[in-house]
Amino acid sequence: MQTTTIDHQALRQRFNPDGSQLRKHQLRMLEILVVIDKICRKHQIPYWLSSGTLIGAVRHNGFIPWDDDLDIEMMRNDYLRLLEVLTKELPDWLALQTDETDPNYFFFYAKVRDRRSLLNEGNNYDRMWKEQGIYIDIFPMEEHPIWLHKFTELSVGHMYKVWRKSKDDAKAIKRVRRIFNFNNRYVFPFLRKFLRTSSSTLLTSGMGIPYHNPRFAEDIFPLAEHVFEGYQFPVPHDYDHHLRCIYGDYTQLPDLDSIHPHVNHIEIYD
């Protein structure tokens, strides 16, 4: 694999030098990942670095210098197992955030949050959530065609419009919760039952998650490992093809002057 020559030191100095707020944020996310990795290895729950986190591992051996989030993926059955384990084994300074642990949370994937920090994102979806610390995202992956996944996105899309445009949060969360529950209890189980007779190596994010870039099982399994911030973490074994299917030539840096952070405000406590 050929890659563009990158001045990593210059990027670090520009975006996330040691001691900067962003670097502290990244290191806190790394702390969370180390805990999750230890739990997954203990219980033999396979997962892999994904999205920008995987690009960072491959292109920078760590975070993309300007990145302020961290994503991992796993198959849905493993995801459900992990949620059960995390409720019992997370240390006190971490919190599992799902629709069951946080009553106003309405995403179809989980977050693990650091209770020693406070973070507010630009989309303001988190304004009524119980847990608002630094987090990493855990995405369940499912075998289903892209058209079906797009249908599930449409079936829950109104939640985001209601939440963005609401001037009354109490009323909005009731409407959002009705849409969430209808899909989670009825629509998605029906679709999963419908799909049981089919088999596919095409993977995409779990139903209702607004990301439908395809992944292929043959690119992911068996998992390999790659260095990320001085640790070895699981990655798809053919990460190059995996990333090119999603992002094209991920080895090229984007326009560095057009980068915008996800986070509006952050506080990090010792």
SSE layout and pairing:
Blueprint: H1 8-15, H2 21-42, E1 48-49, H3 51-60, E2 71-75, H4 76-89, E3 94-97, E4 110-114, E5 117-121, E6 135-143, H5 146-165, H6 169-195, E7 202-205, E8 215-216, H7 217-220, E9 224-228, E10 231-235, H8 239-247, E11 263-268
Parallel strand pairs: 2-6
Antiparallel strand pairs: 1-2, 3-4, 4-6, 5-11, 6-7, 7-8, 9-10
Overall pLDDT confidence? 94
Distance between the termini: 41 Å
User: What is the count of β-strands?
Assistant: 11
Oligomer: single chain
How would you characterize this protein structure?
The chain is an alpha+beta fold. It has eight helices and eleven strands. Strand 9 and strand 10 form a beta hairpin. Helix 5 packs antiparallel against helix 6. The longest helix has 27 residues. It is globular and about 50 Å long.
